[in-house]
Structure formats: C-alpha cells, structure tokens
Specification:
Helix content of chain B: 55-70%
Number of strands of chain B: 5
Structural class of chain B: alpha+beta
Largest sheet of chain B: 5 strands, antiparallel
Strand order of the largest sheet of chain B: 1-2-3-4-5
Shape of chain A: globular
Number of helices of chain A: 12
CATH superfamily of chain B: Tgt2/MlaC
Order of helices and strands of chain A: HHHHHHEEHHHHHH
CATH class of chain B: Alpha Beta
Number of domains of chain B: 1
Oligomer: heterodimer
C-alpha cells in the first residue's frame, strides 16, 4: 500500500510539471506516448472486430427488458464507486441520493435489475469515479493513454483506476481482493466485461458511422474521450458549455 | 420625474431586448424543427439509399455554414493559409463535409428529434436544445445545435453537440492531429481529405 502511494505521488508530481508547462494559446492534446497509443488502439480495434462487436451484436438480439435489466444492475453496482467519490467531492446530497438508490434497488429492485428508487423520487445521477474526483481537486489530466482492452484513459484516470483497485471500490474488494464466501473473482471480471458489451451494444451504429467517416479515427476517439471527461469533471448540466465561445468569436473577426 | 423617465426608458429597452431575444430563439427553434422534420421524412421514406443521400446533401447545403465550420476546424493553422490554399481547402472541405454528413445520417431510419428549448447566447449564436427519441436499441440522446444568427433571416448551423460532445471541436482536433503528425504540413490534411472524398 505504501509503495502504491509513493508511485501515485510520483505520478502526480510529473503530472503537475507536464500540465504547468503545456498551457499554450490553444488547447493542445497531451499525447506523450502517441506511437505506443496508436499501436494499442490498433490492437483494441482488432479485438473489437473479432470479439466485442460480434458479442455486442448478439447481445442486441436479446429482448429489450433483459438488456434494460442488465444495464440497470450494472449501473446499480457502479454506485459503489460513485458514492465514495460523491463524498470526496463534497457532494453529500448526491451521496445520500445514491446510497438510498443503491439500498432500494438492491433489495426491492432485485440486485438492481429494476429501478423502483426512481419512481420513489430518487433520480439517477451521473456516475463519478476517482479520476473525476482528482479532476475536481484541480489535478490536470496529464498525458493521454490507450490501455490494452480497456481503451482510452489519461494518467490521472489510470491512477484513479488504481485507487479503485486498492480499496476504493467495494465491489472489487468483496470479489477479487478479499476472499468472501459470497462472491468469486470471476463475478467482478464478468461484470466489467458485461459493462463493456452493454456500452458497445448501445453504440453500435454511432461507432461504426464515426469510423467510416473519420480521416483519423484514433484522433476522433481521443477527442471524444477527453471532451467527455472534461464535461463530467465540470459536472456540466448545460451540455454546450463544453464549447469555448471565444474560439468561434475569433472566426468572425 | 427625471428618475421616473429613466426607469421607463430602461423598462422599454429591457422589453425590446427581450422581444428581440425571443424572436431569434423562435426563428432558431422553427429552423431546427423544419430541418429535422425534412430529414426525418427523407430517412423514413422508401427511396433508394442514393436518393436519400442526395436529398440529405441538399439539406446540408442550405442549412449548414460549411465554410465557417471548415475554417473553424483549421484552428491555429487558419492564419497561415494563403488565399489560394484557403479557397482550395473550402472546396475540398465542402465535399468532405457533405459526404460525411449524408453517409452518417442515412444509417438512421428511425430518427425522431424533438426540440426542447432554446438559449440565445448573444446576437450571433443561439443554442437549440433537442433530443433524439429513444428506440429499443439505443437510449435517448441529447443534441444541442449551435445556430449562427448573425443574419436572422438566414440562420445557419455551426455545430452539433451530442451528449456534450462537440462535433466541430472533434473535427478540429482530428485535423490538427493529421497536420501535427506530418510536421505541420497542411497539404497532408488536403491529401487525406481528397482520399476520403475519392473513396
């Protein structure tokens, strides 16, 4: 644990140096490992073609209530990461809402397959993770990374995932980290795989059409990922605030 | 008495500004309503794919500020372009945009978009908020339209923000990546776009 903490601190020091030296006139993407990232991206795309896409296409053929139930259950599990991050971000109201949602949906909603909490007035809120919490603390995203199988990330988000696996995610703790009698390691990996397939199935057409119409698909995915993280960290309700108006204004001068 | 007169003038100005904002907002909402209805009719028709693409291109040409978006996507490289290069880029980008726009849209045969609200940012821009109605295969999608209203009689689309992700910004970062990976040579972008257009 001490060693991990040391690594995290080192990464953040490097991160701060990278971020502070890269405030250019125009927002530049910090893709420090672009060659390796592109190679990993090509590997992930090949894996998607032979595995994720066909599985997602098959998953799409399941009846709609089955898919909705799976999506709900996975979403319910994600509360175990969201709640501690709500607290770390000082958003106690959201933490309370998500805790009540988790209790109601896990019990009355049968392990989260149904969402009775929503009908009782506890609305589904945006997911939060440790990467987002670091972002709200003012820590820059650092270099862009493409992880094998897992896909796009940044140094900050990858460190956030490490924190999840070092005690920050209760689901990981009861399945992989600790030997409980109730869950197996495979339950964790199965849930993560299902999450990936569920996401891919919801984006089959949009992903395909994006690939078909891009001149540099790697750069397109990178841009979309970084924009999405920026929006989530700022917790933007007004979606178009992600756009910098001054950028457009300079066009009209 | 003087104070009262100042107050009345202030109220009238406020009222007129409000009226002006509302009229721009209505123009923009109606504009998006009209485009989405036309697109929806084309997509749900029994016409052949090629016919649909041609119809969608017509919508794109009349309702999108293609030259504006093109120049925006060049970002900092815009300033280093000669007039000839600018003219060439506009031509290539127009072809690229219409091909990419129509082939993306034509895949959606059950696209129903509903305008939700609008927000006048300033005299040049209005954001129209809409949603793509959910189907059994995909959830509801929030789509915001950035409308350029400098000429209120001819509003034009400058960006689409899907679930908070700007297509114009994505395009800009994609183009910048191509230029950067070719040592800052803008001709590399021209070549990539031409290759796409000729596919």
């Amino acid at each position: 644990m001490k060693k991990l903490l040391k690594i995290i601190i080192h990464i953040f020091i490097i991160q701060f140096l990278v971020v502070s030296s890269s405030f250019a006139e125009e927002r530049e993407v910090k893709d420090c490992f672009e060659k390796i990232n592109r190679a990993t991206f090509a590997f992930n795309m090949a894996l998607d073609k032979v595995l994720f896409r066909p599985v997602a296409t098959g998953y799409r053929k399941l009846p709609s209530p089955v898919r909705t139930g799976t999506s709900n259950a996975l979403n319910n599990l994600s509360n175990l990461i969201t709640i501690p991050n709500n607290i770390l971000q000082g958003d106690l109201k959201a933490a309370g809402n998500n805790s009540i949602r988790f209790i109601i949906n896990t019990t009355i909603g049968i392990v989260g397959i149904f969402d009775p909490a929503n009908a009782l007035g506890f609305e589904k809120l945006e997911k939060e993770d440790f990467g987002q919490t670091f972002g709200t603390m003012g820590i820059g995203e650092g270099c862009y990374l493409v992880l094998p199988v897992l896909g796009p990330s940044t140094v900050r988000d990858a460190v956030g995932s490490l924190v999840s696996m070092s005690g920050g995610d209760a689901w990981y703790n009861v399945t992989v980290k600790n030997d409980t009698q109730y869950f197996k390691e495979s339950d964790y990996y199965f849930s993560k795989l299902s999450e990936g397939v569920d996401f891919r199935a919801k984006n089959l057409e949009s992903f395909d059409s994006l690939e078909k119409t891009s001149v540099d698909f790697y750069a397109t995915v990178r841009s979309l990922y970084l924009q999405d993280r920026e929006r989530k960290i700022k917790n933007l309700k007004v979606k178009t605030d992600t756009l910098d108006d001054s950028d457009w204004e300079s066009l009209d001068k | 008495m003087r104070k009262l007169r100042v107050n009345i003038i202030f109220i009238i100005i406020f009222f007129l500004l409000n009226l002006y904002s509302n009229s721009i907002a209505n123009i923009s909402s109606n504009f998006i309503d009209d485009i989405t209805n036309r697109a929806s009719n084309i997509l749900s028709s029994e016409d052949a794919r090629e016919v649909k693409i041609q119809e969608l291109i017509k919508i794109g040409e009349s309702s999108v500020d293609i030259d504006g978006i093109g120049l925006y996507t060049l970002g900092k490289h815009r300033k280093s372009l000669s007039d000839d290069q600018k003219a060439e880029f506009k031509k290539i980008f127009r072809e690229y945009f219409l091909k990419s726009f129509s082939t993306r849209l034509v895949e959606y045969n059950e696209a129903k978009i509903v305008v939700v609200s609008e927000d006048v940012k300033n005299e040049k821009y209005t954001i129209v908020k809409s949603k793509l109605v959910a189907t059994s295969n995909r959830p509801e999608v929030a789509i915001d339209w950035r409308i350029y209203t400098k000429d209120p009689s001819k509003p034009l689309i400058r960006d689409l923000v899907i679930e908070g992700l700007s297509l114009a910004r994505t395009q800009k970062e994609e183009f910048n990546s191509i230029i950067k990976n070719n040592g800052g040579d803008i001709n590399a972008l021209f070549t990539s776009l031409k290759e796409f257009n000729n596919k």
